[in-house]
Every structure is written in structure tokens, then in C-alpha cells.
Amino acid sequence: MSTRTVIRGGLVITASDELHADVLIEDNRIAALAATGTPAAGTFTADRVVDATGKYVIPGGVDVHTHMELPFGGTFASDTFETGTRAAAWGGTTTIVDFAVQSVGHTLREGLDAWHAKAEGNCAIDYGFHMIVSDVGQETLKEMDLLVEEGVTSFKQFMAYPGVFYSDDGQILRAMQRSAANGGLIMMHAENGIAIDVLVEQALARGETDPRHHGEVRKALLEAEATHRAIRLAQVAGAPLYVVHVSAMEAVAELARARDEGLNVFGETCPQYLFLSTDNLAEPDFEGAKYVCSTPLRPREHQARLWRGLRTNDLQVVSTDHCPFCFTGQKELGRGDFSKIPNGLPGVENRMDLLHQAVVDGHISRRRWIEIACATPARMFGLYPQKGTIAPGADADVVIYDPHAEQVMSAETHHMNVDYSAYEGKRVTGRVETVLSRGAFVITEREYTGRKGHGVYTPRSTCQYLV
Fold this sequence. Notes:
By secondary structure, the chain is an alpha/beta fold.
């Protein structure tokens, strides 16, 4: 039986337009838009009418970098696909792209199947997968072609974490050459892990064991060096490149230079690099462990360059790298040895609100907010215009957002399955009020009305953002 919903009177904001418009939803798709008060809008009839007067009507957020249930450092990320996608919905995100992991000695298919088993039937919102490639050989390269054909069109490699996920330059080049041929997009964790391991060993030998030393050994220059190397390997292979979680001004400079040369090189940053710093890593009594992630938090002076990169499109996407570990029992594994602190922060619920605060603070415009959080992630990873916009034919992933509501971020009120907030006590203006995922109400006036299993696996086409 067909259902129709009309959202009336809100300011519809997409990456390209702002318009006071009524939105007609039929079943799971957007059917039409019409300027509020016009005769066309007057023809919209519905089973359910939502009054969005004084509110924003925006596309559901697209977070293309999450790690639910990821095994890391002898433990697992604390959010499951059920808890993590529910928290994402609370924060106005309606699609995630998570990372399936190939273990060394195993096939891509085995890793992908394992992640499908974790997610299927458990997600509150729609999801897709990237593939972490840890073991580049001839069979892996052939499998990359097959995965692209079935909608897993991006592959992550690591210049960091020797002995775990690390790929050497030869393996990276081979994977890039394959992606140049099959249309896939290589995503790179760009840090010189071999050199970092030397600095870790030396720091621990000097008795430098506190969390703040995590940031000191993972030097910004080693992020920049790896970013430069990844760009040049991609140029040799004739492949596009997407650098994840860019944190350092020197790395942004490498991306800007490559883009000025006309290369298909893209960069993502995350809220933690825009709002947090090494001051957090240095918090006393091991509290700094809460902020250990890689790439690490940088000194505050890096933030201005990241914001500028977002304004000038040297950085195109803000994702979360959501990978939460509880302080009690998980982050504490690294007491006395910062290298044993599980790397990762919670953030999937906070991204849309923090970026709206950036609008309030004058860092970015409203349309740029939607561009970096919804539209460009969808285009970059082959989900547009099904996701990332409000237009006829798009999935009815819609957020009604109150730009005037004030909130204080806290572990007491968030919905992520983690015992601390990286933004504890931070006051922000703006809050999600209602969330629709494919036309179904997941959050209704600040109440959770969704269900696990509503979210479905979403195959992706290849990158739609190439020059």
C-alpha cells in the first residue's frame, strides 16, 4: 500500500540551492518539490504532513568512513552495526560506508562476507562497504575486479601499521594500477609507519609512555611524506587517490599542489582534527587516552589550514573515522605504554551538529555544510543522486534540522555505545529533530522510531567526482 508524506514550510538546503519548499515523499523516494505557498505545492496531498516551519530540510548525512565492530589492538570497536547506525541516525546521518577487512592469508571475499554477516539485519540506516586490502597478490588483484562489478568500488590501503594492515610501495602500486583499470578508488592511510615504529620504540625506551607521546611520534612531516608518496604512486599508475583523515597542514599542502597539477587527488578530514588538538592528548591522569587516534590530533595551528582547505575544495569530504573504544577496559590497555592504546574516537553521532556549528561560527556556508557532509561523499563513492541530495527520484533520506536549538554534547545523552564523549561539555547550536530513511521515520521529534533491519546494503557505482 502506497504512503505519501509532505514536509511543509522548511528551508530546503542542498549543496547547490536553498529554497523555502514543500517536499512530497511517495513510499521510499522523493516525488516532487514545490516552493512553499505556490499552486504546485497546494496540490501535494498526503497521509502524513510534517510542519517544518522555521527549520532546515536537508539530505541525510553520508558518512563514508566508519568502523563498526572493528578488531584492533586485541579488542573490538565498541559500537555494533545496530548501536552505531542507531546513533548515526540520531545525529542526522542516514548512510554509512564501513570497512570490510581482508586478513593476511585470506581472500577479499572472505573479509567481505564476514562484514556482510555482521551488518545484515542489524542496521537502522542504509550502509555500504569499502574493502581494506591487506594482502596484495595476483588473486587479490583479480578479486578487486569482481568486487567493483558488484558495487564495492573502493579499496583502502595502509602505509601505517606494519605487521597488521601495512602495504609496501610495490603492493600499493599494483593495487593502484588495478584500480586504474577497473574504475575503483584507492583510499590511503598516509603515514610512514616504518619510520613511526622507530620513533615509538625510541620514545618508550626513554620512558615517554603517556598518551601525548602518541601525537609526538606520529609526526606531521611523516603524514606529509606519505601523502606525497601516495600521490606520486597514483600518478605513475594513472589512478585516482582519496587520502583519508588528513590532519596536518603539510599534508593539505601536498594535496593542494597535486590538485593544482590537475590530478584526481582528493582529501578527507574529520571533526576531531577541526575541533580537538594535542591539548586533549595531554590531559592529565591518562584522560588523554580518550583522544588517541591515527592520524593523531595536531597542535591547534593546523585547524585554520584544514578549514581553509574545506573552503577552497582542497579537502572535499568530512567523515568521522568513527571507531570507538571505551575508556574503561579498552583505552586502559595502554596504561604505561601509549602504543597499546586502541586507536580511534567516537563521532558518528556528532558530525552533522559540529559542522552546523562551523556554519554558525563562519567557517563554512550552509550549502558547503551539505556539500562536504552529504553530496560530495555520495558522489565520491558512487551513491549520488540516490543519496546526498533532495531531488525527485532520490531516496527519501531527509533530516528536519532545528538551527536554533542549543545542546551540550555529553556521554550522558549520546547514543553511541561508548563511555565517554570526545566533545564532553561542548555547547553547539543546532539539533536534529526528525530523520527519515527511505521515507520511514527513524527519529520522530527527538524520539527513536526506527528499527534494526530497516537499513539495507547499498551497492555503489564508481567515483562520480573525477575531473
